[in-house]
Design goal:
single chain, 376 residues, Butyryl-Coa Dehydrogenase, subunit A, domain 1, Butyryl-CoA Dehydrogenase, subunit A, domain 3, 4-stranded antiparallel β-sheet
Length: 376
């Protein structure tokens, strides 16, 4: 396995990093919060689109760059190091892949082209993650209630997936009602979504053949596709979490060097050194798991289930640890609104829940390892 980035991957990440260093500053994130508390930074989103980030893994036929999931993972890690207030997770990590995997040719041409161009934001709803949704589909209309949907207020389109099928719902449909929430994560605001007879277009490959779409997928195929989409999103989120760990450590180290107490930099105290060392170890474990999972995702390796679960669990644990201890290193000022530690701490807990309960991923990992042992 190659543990170094290729020249193309390195140039891609460096280009995104240069842009984000100037565009995704704390000042820009806070200004975006003031302008659109329940939206996202549209100027930043257009800038990412101009770099090709929004269409990175989308096929060239739909205006994308046609690169792989591993390259997208490296970009996700880079984005995690900055305060990116944009719908990357809901639109790129999840929805674009769902449309490409489950949509008809006509749906891909219509929506993937717009995603690649940065013209729209998409919210993603996995019905299985909403215990009380109780969706009803009849006559091409969907009725359901979904709580805490990321980026829902600013979305132009909803992708709804369930074991029985997948649908596209335009946000301006009269059957769609959204209620903004004052949620924990300020970088990715959420909303409750109520669908009352909303026009739901079946995604071609998952339901009726449409246009040039292939034969409709069976229910088992749809279940397998949704499972793959969950694993893919978890891996890309793990990359993002690793990047956020790096930012938390960098900020804590810089502060430990400049903050003096008792005539010495606090970074020279053993207790602070141990905190920083523990943060670094957690991050590197998560990075190793994420990189392996990224390779397994890109190659569709048979160990993807175990790799995705390990990446999600280790990266979630690492970011919670690093975000909390970054506040600890900063001391009293670390708890203030003016510092950015709380933004990463909030995001750490939101991302921990977005991919589903930890116990489900633990079960996946245990089952996968048991099967590997039996096969050996």
């Amino acid at each position: 396995m190659e543990f170094q980035l290729s020249d193309l991957q390195r140039e891609l990440v460096e280009g995104v990093e240069r842009y984000l260093r100037d565009a995704a500053t704390p000042e820009a994130a806070r200004a975006s919060l003031d302008r659109e508390p329940h939206g996202y930074d549209r100027e930043l989103w257009r800038g990412l689109a101009s770099l090709g980030v929004t269409g990175l893994s989308i096929g060239e036929a739909y205006g994308g760059m046609g690169l792989g999931d591993l390259e997208l993972g490296f970009v996700a890690e880079c984005a995690g190091r900055f305060l990116v207030r944009a719908p990357l997770g809901s639109t790129i990590w999840r929805s674009a892949a769902a449309i490409e995997l489950l949509g008809s040719e006509a749906q891909k041409e219509r929506w993937l082209t717009k995603i690649a161009a940065g013209d729209i934001a998409v919210a993603y709803v996995d019905v299985a993650a909403h215990a009380f949704a109780e969706p009803e589909i009849a006559g091409g209309r969907l009725t359901a209630r979904f709580s805490v949907v990321a980026d829902a207020m600013a979305a132009d389109l909803f992708v709804v997936v369930a074991p029985g099928g997948a649908w596209l719902i335009e946000a301006e449909d009269e059957g769609v009602a959204r209620t903004a929430l004052e949620t924990f994560d300020l970088l990715q605001p959420s909303a409750d979504v109520a669908l009352t007879g909303a026009t739901a277009e079946p995604m071609g490959a998952a339901a009726e053949p449409m246009g040039a779409a292939a034969e409709p997928m069976g229910e088992r195929d749809v279940r397998d596709a949704i499972r793959f989409l969950r694993q893919r999103a978890a891996v890309l989120t793990a990359f993002e979490q690793v990047g956020m760990c790096q930012a938390a450590i960098d900020g804590a180290v810089a502060y430990a060097k400049e903050r003096y107490a008792f005539g010495r930099a606090i970074g020279s105290f053993q207790a602070v050194k141990h905190l920083l060392a523990d943060m670094y170890v957690k991050m590197e474990i998560a990075r190793s798991n994420s990189y392996y999972a990224g390779w397994a995702l890109a190659t569709r390796d048979a160990n993807l289930t175990a790799a995705a679960a390990a990446a999600h669990l280790s990266a979630t644990d690492a970011l919670r640890h690093c975000a909390a201890n970054a506040i600890q290193v900063h001391g009293g000022i670390g708890f203030t609104w003016e510092l950015d530690c709380h933004l990463r701490y909030r995001r750490a807990h939101h991302l921990a829940l977005q991919s589903g309960p930890a116990r489900l991923w633990q079960d996946d990992l245990i089952d996968a390892l048991a099967r590997q042992r039996e096969a050996a």
